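Protein in question quoted in full.
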Amino acid sequence: MTVNRVELQRIMASLQENGLTVEAVEDGALVQHGDTRVALFVEKDPQGGVIVRLHLDLDLYVEEDSLPDILIGMNLMNQGLDYGSLNLDPVDPEEEEPDAPLTFAVLGRSVLWLPELNAAELDRLREHLRRFETEVTETVENTLHGPRGMLA
């Protein structure tokens, strides 16, 4: 379902009022939180309210031959996440090489349902956004730079 632009603009205005930098994009918004930018998309829920989807591009890429090890590591990391999850998305190849290995981007993703857009629910969204970005970023950084860094 498509979102009414009014709902997206209300969410963007609320985030801006609370000191976050928000930039409209084609079908959503980019929210600057610390050093990262979280993509935010909103759609109407047929049963009422809106569904907010958050996407955090981690600038991590893996090739298909590393997938077994990466999937085990991501599964372990996801077990410790409360506000989102790590996912793999295939990257469209820039060059048309038939034998080139597939590459996947590692993304943080989260979904939040807001039954309405009142002040309490918008506060809950801001807190969820903050915790999502912090939790995913810290988990990945600790894994990559910790004593048992993930090999990709």
About this structure: The domain at 5-145 is CATH 3.30.1460.10 (Yope Regulator; Chain: A,). Residues 148-152 have pLDDT under 50 and may be disordered. The first strand starts at residue 21 and ends at 25. The longest helix spans residues 119-145.
